[in-house]
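User: Structure tokens for both sequences below?

Assistant:
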Amino acid sequence: MDLNQYIERWAKQSPQATAIVYGAETVSFAQLADRTDRAASVLKSKYGIQRGDRVSYLGLNHPDILSLLLACERLGAIFNPLNSRLAPAEYAFLLGDAEPKVFIVDEHFTDLADQLPEAEGKSVFLDDLFKTTNTEKFDCEPVSPDTALLLVYTSGTTGRPKGVILSQRAVMANINNCQALYAFEPGQKVQITLPLFHVGGLCILLLPALTHGATISLHQRFDPAATLEDIEYNQITTSIYVPAQMSAMMDLPQWQTCDLSSMKYVVVGSSIIPLKQIQNFHARGIPVSQLYGATETGPAAIGLPMEFAFQKKGSAGKAVKYCSIEVRSPDRQSLATGEHGDIWVKGDNILTHYWRNEEETAQVLVDGWYNTGDIGFEDSDGFYWIVDRSKDVVISGGENIYPAEIEAASLAHPAIAEIAVVGQKHERWGETPVAVVEIHTGHRIDLDEYQNFLADRLARFKYPKGLVIVDQLPRNGMGKIEKSVLRDQINQSK
């Protein structure tokens, strides 16, 4: 079945069952189906949306994002959710690249849309899509599963963002992969605080849970105190976080006293998770399942089954059910157990191509396999461990040094709040690692003390040879540290 068929099934079987809770608002499955009909009708009749047309959206999390996605699927259109944390110039580029037929904004971004020449004549207020009284079903020609459904731009840590095209087949494959791992069913309450402009928020838990009858507790934006309160008072079953969110919750006094007994497990979407964060959830009796992937993989590619959460903490897990994983050398040869190499992914869940970018597509897609650009290895039990991004590896004196390993060890230091390790050019060694850190208020740290702290944790050749203290690390719209910016700064200041 496709997304619409799943929702329509629940709308007929359990029309009054709650699909989405959004603050004080509740949306039943029948209401979700009705609002999808309204959105599809207006998009087709008023704005002429046809197969292949792009429908861009800019706004905070809202239940109607799901109706827009479902309407686009029915029409064969491409839904393009935009990052809500960008600058006007960045939106100008994205709209110029996607060329949407209609640009939908919520109440928080109407003024910004008026400032963008690229949005002129295309801008539509979100609420206007649902004012029609015509909710009759209209005949749509069958849409192939290979029809593009999502155009999601990568966060663009280097260069311009790339538009990832995910087909209807890829979205459904991701749902099947996540459902095989997490087994959603009616009665479960799934909290979503991640932004829906990213596949992490939209596709890992939300779509699999919703299509299998669970209830979504959708937050407009992440707030650590509100997140904990929601878990305690609404008996949330599971949620998905990124490491920065975990840290924000753990920094609150109520972390230790909040009732988290309803949580069966937590999913963490990131390549590498600080072990301390995993252990803090485990101390509360909550298993942590890492879900590894990328925008280009839909995103689920590797996931840690719950029964191994305590035994294999820190592992990305095993290949999801309908996905193949290989660890390869730079010349694309399969590597043996324990050997570090590039992580390659194959399955119906991976991207079709990069939007209007054949050159980049050819670099990452080879014979149906996608090269993630991440370095990892498979252990003797068949579990995968992610070591670092290949572009972030520091090669010093012929030795590969993985910044993520240094960062994970360094976060145990009481003074270090955030850290990024990058390579600095060196005449003799080629590169040497430099640690750029934010420190906790009231703490101090110097290079000698820092290196002594690492003495029992890392081999000596991995020690950062420089330490730079900053007020704030540079981050992109998704909150990821921009290592490319740091590398440029470190090497220019040398």
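Moving on to the next sequence.
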Amino acid sequence: MLAGRYLRARRKETFISIIAGFSFLGITLGVATLIIVMAVMNGFRGELLERILGINGHLVVQPIGSELTDYDEVSRRIASVDGVRFAVPLIEGQALVSGRGGGSGAHVRGISGDDLARIDAVSAKITSGSLEGFDDGDGVAIGVRMARNLGLAVGDDITLISPDGDITPFGTTPRVKAYPVNAVFEIGMSEYDASIIFMPFAEAQLYFNSEGRATAIEIYVDDPDQVGVLRAPVEQAAERQMFLIDWQDRNRVFFQALQVERNVMFLILTMIVLVAALNIISGLTMLVKDKGRDIAILRTMGATRGAILRVFFMTGAAIGVFGTAAGVALGIVVCLNVEKLRQFFSWMSGTTLFNPELYFLSQLPADLDMGETIGVVVMALTLSFFATLLPAWRAAALDPVEALRYE
């Protein structure tokens, strides 16, 4: 009852209540900001990981010493390893591409129609056209951003130019060939949607002068986090000298940078909660000085030091508890509607917030992790409780005689 009365504003205590209000608001915003930023960074990492692993193999096998002419047999042996979902022989090469709207560079991947159908990140994201009869024709599948940049649609021709063409008495001439666009896909990662072309495996062998061989075998596993355990069984199944590199090695620097950025953001935003906790100290200290006579009277009536400490501890702790609860509620609401809020602020400002050309993803993701949210709550409550202890202890240590000497 006393803690509640001390929290409510009275005419003489308006300034103290204003400080308590700012403390409450600071903790609310600090907790909400922490939850939102952590959720967005988790979502950003998860979406990138899903798209990178969805289109690229978890483990890539490349030949050493001799060309990969026995790719069918090697792929079958590797696919039989426990933990491996499937293995895909590939032809990879770089080319310049052009259409009605201009030109750009492209990464061409030669793959069979059956293998492409098993890569859900592509086959399940076809926006126009179809992959039916992919192996039978000479058409290609391109990303939606490439189609938009080059002004192409399904049925139009896209021209590929490769520097490694036919060898003539005058040297190597570039190879130029036009292919119809049979399908347009949208993976959701702007870099891939703007640069990758899928071509029938046999046609890619001819185009890149790779008849009878593959350049690599990409392996998709059941659990990408356990890909290191499969290295030895895959090497044994290959039965030839191979170079293996997994997705963790290929993207180690990128994901380590994301983790460092995430940790630094957590530390920086924790300072918001710390500042709000310091406001609790200042507000409670002023409240203790203002209530010195009340404390002395309560002590003379028989209130113990522990009772006084509990009163003022509950006063400060209430700010922390209710501020944290409000921050969690606000953070969850924002996380559930983060993409709508991004679109709204983009419309309000007339600019593109979270540009997909810079951030790779076409929309702002948010992945609310329960463990992290609980950690933020515990951290905010701990700072609030520690900030409350010092003023509460000073109130309990107040000498009634000194407090009433001049009353």
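User: Anything stand out in the second?

Assistant: Residues 66-240 form one domain.
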